[in-house]
Design brief:
The structure holds 2 protein chains of 2 kinds. By secondary structure, chain A is an all-alpha fold. In chain A, about 70% of the residues lie in helices and about 0% in strands. Chain B folds into 2 domains: about 130 residues, D-Maltodextrin-Binding Protein, domain 2 (3-Layer(aba) Sandwich), CATH 3.40.190.10; about 90 residues, 3-Layer(aba) Sandwich (D-Maltodextrin-Binding Protein, domain 2), CATH 3.40.190. The chains are: A mainly alpha, B alpha/beta.
Chain lengths: ~300, ~240
């Protein structure tokens, strides 16, 4: 990084540290923080989408749709996360390749499953072998997003479905008596009011999601925990910057990161809760109304 | 416009598919110096890297390096995430049942015990080793209590913090650790020769690739390249062909 870093063995003190902290591996370590943040930013809305879809399906009038919604919630919530992350991703990846294989290589005669091997024709590989490493990484990341979203979506579906049931019956009845169709009731009354009931559950999920990001490494994405372990492990003179076991310091760094993330989240969620309580028929909504009545 | 982007993206994907055979993805662990490790520039480095690159050049293949957990390296090969394992992996009969190996690219290696307490009795000691290695199976058979760790570095750390009495690993991995420990670590007992040397792991169905790699390895052994590389990474006492 800096010009004086050319010969690390001759460096000492601060200049050694400044060179050490700017090595290629450390830059990858810093970049992996970004990976985690992007994962959170992308996964949360998708998971919420899955959750909303699941909750709607579970309360649907059509029986097959209802079974689908309930089955999704029961299946995913009942299977340990780590099993899901180990099994589902491989199944998804192989499923995609199998489909492309069927489309692109109809003349292929070798068996796809051969003992423990899974072998599709080279044209069906996803991503293709010749693709640059970055494409492989993005593909792996996308698989991770889908898996995280499916798992957390199932929990969100349960939370949202509970929240939908918690909206006071009187509110719905009033809307119906105004002659609104079920669809209008859902869109205008139920959904705007349910968020305050869903928020405690969803904020729990969000915090769990933050803490579940180290599962990324199971999916082949090099996240902050992977790099902390890799960089913190003792390094002999085979490396340019030998040092003893420094994992403690790296993991302390991660601790600070996770605490900052969760502390920041809690502040934002508290603000969101105040906002969502406004005008609601709940205790905190009522309290706000009385307070607001005096100041406004 | 959207259509155009989509179709050009599809085209790019299909065009990539046609060339797919020419790129060989090399899977390694990246945590086992001097065989394979991530150097400070963030790239795979070590003896495995040098051998792999030389083999690819000889065989006229384009190679790409990928790192993965040691634990899942064989399943990843089988499900096609990469095409070869070149990760300081010893050729053993147990592994031969699930994957194929090329001829060895390093003769059988000495494994050694390193400890912080020289009077440890190996028969009743707690010995740390990396999970799924020939060293781990050797310890399990020897009667000592085996403690397994995901990475070799953690196995060494277990001895440092007193969890284990000794660590058992490839001697070349332990040499810099013992030498740079200011006398804290010492060798224990005799070296043990295990396995049939290091080989490049392949899917059993990849016979064509195996033939190519074997041919390249034979050439590299004959012209002395492998011997020079071994000396470079393991010192003058390196095993030679």
């Amino acid at each position: 990084m800096f010009a004086y870093c050319a010969d690390p063995k001759s460096l000492e003190g601060l200049s050694w540290l400044s060179c050490y902290l700017t090595t290629g591996t450390h830059l990858s370590f810093y970049a992996s923080f970004l990976t985690v943040l992007v994962l959170l930013a992308v996964t949360a809305p998708i998971a919420l989408g899955f959750g909303f879809g699941g909750a709607m399906a579970a309360r649907s009038g059509a029986a097959p749709l209802r079974w689908l919604g309930k089955g999704y919630m029961a299946m995913v919530r009942g299977v340990p996360d780590i099993v899901f992350f180990l099994f589902f991703v491989i199944a998804l990846d192989q499923g995609i390749e199998w489909l492309i294989h069927q489309a692109r290589c109809p003349g292929w005669t070798d068996p796809i499953r051969n003992g423990l091997e899974f072998r599709v024709c080279p044209q069906a590989k996803m991503p293709p072998n010749s693709a640059p490493q970055i494409v492989h990484q993005i593909y792996g990341f996308a698989l991770a997003v889908v898996t995280f979203a499916l798992v957390f979506g199932a929990f969100a579906a349960n939370v949202l479905s509970g929240a939908m049931k918690a909206v006071p019956r009187a509110q719905i009845e009033t809307a119906e008596s105004y002659g609104m169709t079920p669809r209008q009731v859902f869109r205008r009354i139920l959904v705007p009011q349910m968020w305050i009931y869903a928020l405690p559950g969803l904020s729990n999920l969000w915090l769990v999601l933050i803490k579940a990001t180290p599962l990324l490494f199971l999916l082949g994405v090099q996240d902050i925990v992977y790099w902390a372990r890799e960089l913190g492990g003792s390094k002999t003179s085979t490396y340019a910057y030998p040092h003893p076991d420094w994992r403690l310091w790296y993991f302390l760094g991660l601790l600070v990161f996770y605490l900052l993330m969760t502390a920041l989240s809690e502040r934002l969620l508290a603000r969101l809760e105040r906002r969502l309580s406004r005008g609601q028929a709940t205790a905190s909504g009522e309290a706000q109304r009385r307070e607001g009545g005096q100041t406004a | 416009m959207k259509q155009l982007i989509l179709s050009s993206a599809l085209l790019a994907l299909t065009a990539g598919g046609a060339l797919a055979q020419d790129v060989v993805r090399m899977g390694t662990e990246g945590a086992y110096p001097p065989y394979n490790f991530i150097n400070d520039a963030g790239e795979v480095d070590g003896y495995d890297r040098d051998v792999g690159d030389a083999v690819c050049e000889k065989a006229g293949l384009t190679c790409e390096w990928v790192t993965t957990d040691w634990d899942s390296i064989i399943p990843n090969l089988q499900s096609g995430n990469f095409d070869t394992i070149i990760a300081g992996m010893s050729i053993t009969d147990e592994r031969r049942e699930v994957i194929d190996f090329t001829q060895n690219y390093l003769p059988p290696l000495a494994s050694a015990y390193a400890t912080m307490e020289p009077d440890t009795d190996l028969d009743s000691a707690v010995v740390a080793a990396q999970v799924g290695t020939i060293q781990a199976s050797h310890v399990a058979e020897s009667g000592a209590t085996l403690l397994e760790f995901a990475t070799p570095d953690e196995a060494v750390a277990a001895v440092r913090n007193g969890e284990a009495d000794a660590v058992f690993a490839d001697k070349d991995f332990l040499v810099p650790i013992v030498e740079e420990s200011n006398g804290e670590f010492s060798w224990l007992g005799e070296d043990v020769a295990l396995g049939g040397g290091l080989g490049i792991g392949l899917r059993k169905s990849d016979t064509e690739l195996k033939a190519k790699l074997d041919e390249a390895l034979t050439a590299l052994k004959e012209d002395g390249t492998l011997n020079t590389m071994a000396k470079e990474w393991f010192g003058e006492t390196a095993p030679q062909f």
